[in-house]
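Office hours follow-up: a student asked to see two folded examples consecutively, so here they are.
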Amino acid sequence: MTDNASHIEIPPSFLQLYVPSGRSKPTAPWAQVLADYELCEDMAQMLAPTAADLQFKLGVTEQDVIERCYSGLRTEPCVLHEAQSRWVVQRMAEILSWPWQNLENVVKT
């Protein structure tokens, strides 16, 4: 692990993807969790301006954009697994200050 990696704080919402209920340790090696987090955070940061632009240009709701972004992330070949895709759109919504608390109603599995 690099010096920079030791300073990265992974949010609890992302760690939950790797720590099953009732357990305290991730199911994947720390280096993998860190690499996955960096990928997902980067994707959310890159999607945010595109999502805001999409909402403006198409005149659709924030929820519509979230659903479209999620569908795009789930298109084969998928780079992320389902839970990571959900986290990315949630994080994207947070970055944009969009409501995301009801994602389970927007993001259909």
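And the second, which I mentioned at the end of office hours:
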Amino acid sequence: MKKVLITVVVLMNLTAFAQEKNTPTAFKKRVLENAEVDFLLSYYNQDGTHSPVSGGIGSEKLTDIASNIVVAVPLNEDDVLTIDVGVSSYTSASSSNINPFDNATSNGVYGTPWQSSSGASKSDQLASVSANYSHSSDNRNTLWNADVSFSNEFDYTSIGFGGGFTKLFNEKNTEISLKANAYLDQWRPIYPIELREYSMYGANFQNNGLFSGVPVLDQNGNQSTDYSPSAFTPYTSSNRNSYSASISFSQILTKKIQMSVFMDILKQEGLLGTPYQRVYFADKANFYIGQSQYIPVYNSEANKGVYHLADDKERLPNSRFKVPIGARINFYINEYMVAKTYYRFYKDDWGIQAHTASIELPIKINSKFTAYPIYRYYTQTASQYFAPYEQHISTEQYYTSDYDLSKFNSNQYGLGFTYTDIFTKAKVFILGLKSIDFRLNHYQRSDGLSANIASFGFKFEVQ
């Protein structure tokens, strides 16, 4: 499956205050009084039966643990530097099947899409670091920021940079923001193992390398030398560049209602397919490595000893244009409850249209504790390039069996708790505890994918 690399996102709220300058020596409050440190940890696990690594079937089991440390340092009264360092580590039954034959031998021990392989791609780590510099004007009505980022994992490296500008009007009741970002990414393509071996040895691959002496079976369970994935060719370019620009408008409508609207424009260019995701064609003969008695029930979790050899890797256009448009409306109900609502419409030139709606209800239990139930609904149409396992035709120009591009809807239910102490009475060495945040979420998709997410956050002030 497409690796789900879960990282915790921290929204740094820069609270700006400006005292009226009645005299030339008016006091100017700092944007951030003291340095702040956030420690964040998340745990994610999922399961499903539509792994894109195995062409739309097989286990999607994945476990990911991610941690971040975010340090915000006031450089002076107006400027803040924020550094975010993160590490994510996952184990995946799906990605392990990039090479499901790590135990393949002539004695009959073979891979299966329904179980994890012990190969090198079973686990990986993602490391990332980003820096953001922000500057506020003397009256705190203007803010600009610039950021850079870097991340790396075993087959992918990303470099990003961008910036933003925010202007407040109407006694800070109106806000307009502009942002732009660019990410220059580099794949180190890793292909399904049988395609790699075929590209090295051609039709003679059964007498060389990994598959030397390992029988290939046809769809009737008979040994065959006819397997020839001629559609496969390695990528000639491994760059992926992404560009985004966004505009948002926020307005306090009444004492109890605040709303904002936003629009993003995103363009991606380069290698947009995932190199190790398999595709199987309906008009091509099937070939397997494994035990012949399992071939009649191949597309089943009952299968435990056979793997379908790929016809090709997925192929997708080298450009993609996306436009999300959305709105947020927050309602102050009373001193104990606020309703936060969100809606987004999404459309791209791959044929996907999507709607997202969510509501969060922060409930103030007392002066320090807040609980917030969360619900999110999502629905999308299928990309024109998607088809399930063995339903693509080899004459198509583009094809994928990644269910992230299929038609589906999803529901997410969550509950969070926040502890806040603005006076930072609890201390750890020189760190005063400002808040603790804990969230649990359950995600369920109509194609059978389900996931659970737990996240923890601790915010400290350096004293």
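Two things to take away from it. Residues 193-201 form the longest helix (9 residues). Confidence is low (pLDDT under 50) at residues 1-25, 105-109.
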